[in-house]
Design goal:
Largest sheet: 8 strands, mixed
Structural class: alpha/beta
CATH superfamily of the largest domain: FAD/NAD(P)-binding domain
Number of domains: 2
CATH topology of the largest domain: FAD/NAD(P)-binding domain
Number of strands: 20
CATH architecture of the largest domain: 3-Layer(bba) Sandwich
Strand content: 15-25%
Shape: globular
CATH class of the largest domain: Alpha Beta
Number of helices: 16
Helix content: 25-40%
Length: about 525
Amino acid sequence: MSTSAARPVDVVVVGAGFAGLYMLHRLRGLGLSAVVLERAGDVGGTWWWNRYPGARCDVESMQYSYSFDPALQQDWHWSERFAGQPEILAYAGHVADRFDLRRDIRFETSVTAARFDAGRGRWLVETDAGAWEARFCVMATGCLSTAKLPEIPGIESFAGRRFHTGHWPHHPVTFAGRRVGVIGTGSSAIQAIPVIAAEAARVTVFQRTPNFSIPSRNKPMDGDYEGWWKRDYGAHRRRARMMRTGILYEINDKGAMEVDPAEREAIYRRRWEAGGTSFMGAFADLITSQDSNDTAAEFVRGRIREIVADPATAEALAPKDHPIGTKRICVDTDYFATYNRPNVTLVNLRAHPLAGITEAGVRTGAGEVTCDDLVFATGFDAMTGALAAIDIAGRDGLLLAEAWRDGPRTHLGLMSAGFPNMFFITGPGSPSVLSNMMVSIEQHVDWIAGALGAMAARQAGVIEPTAAAQEEWVRHGMEVANRTLYPRAASWYMGANVPGKPRVFLPYIGGVGVYREICDKVAAEGYPGFSLSRAA
């Protein structure tokens, strides 16, 4: 990579989602020059790309927002309990305008490679629109930003329209009068299917693995609830930051087997009626005790059987192959009730395996289903996919793809040994996707900004985790994961949705509060586990 034409800045940030926007804001506060490189046409990250019907956040809108600016918290009004994609994207745009961030963002610019020049202590970052040179490189690439098409024979032969929920068109799409096939039943599908079914002539859902889903009970924002948050936003935020998920909700400190069946049923029912992912806070041990988890799982299966009229369809929709919560638990609006519509059919691919896609539709063991449109709700190459798409080489030419061949290796999810001055925001080895992403994003950005400030105070030019500290963190992360039920599920948390991807638990399950304390202690003690040096 040539350096002669590379434009110099102190920091290159890759990605203009919520992580990249806040990182840019903090870098300006440190007096550092920075550029944000973004392949999309505007800010918003995953909310720029995920425009599928029904796209909505599963964290309450009063909590899925920045906390760094008190005036911003007070001024912005959310219209719903769970904000939809258009409103979240508008919020990202408002933040970019409010803090004049777009002037340092280069849109429609894809980063293709990054090389660390040890002799000069600089990262050379190459894009499809030229190169940049920086002391630091911050990867704000997002955990769910690389859409994953399934490996299905004949996928290119389909003559109709094809869509992926993670890369939806930016123009209106109508399904009126059309026969739609939906492949996948994860979070995106569970949100999209009811909306598509309300318009389409026919919807056929091809399901390999059913997922647990809790009703959202979404509604217009309640003024009293909004006022409760805004009257003491600071205190509520501080409490949320120390919660396991970074979301403020009531946690029961009892185990599910510590109460009698009638009380347990009543607690589950109250959580079900309240809606949202706080269902998993019904008891303290739902992710650690199989017996307790079984009671929660059976409760949800019971609700599915109550909602879905056809017993065979209900049974096919009732998950039985993984503990509840060990795959991303979904939040829906009328998902299970949608299967009572006369224009919706479920094809159980466990009973009738998917054979391939034809020019006319989808072929399974039960025959061929003719489709005008196919919607692939098949998820992402989570947490590492966006990084793997960039040719990253660190010290001595070490490729990130090689260093992470057997699974990602980071210290605190923030940096990787052999890649000096490169930071990851909500990277593998951090709570990230198991948390309120806004809380985790702010915590990571603040930690990185603190580290850069400490480097300036010490006149240090390079920071890099030690190999020993990194291996200890990886070991600790797996030890904590193995105390839970999470590794029992073939989930994207384990990379199980990507053929050939190493099967390791990608996020850190120890909890947002515990993790924050660990990171704060590292900073307070002068960054043990990291090597800070004046020169490369």
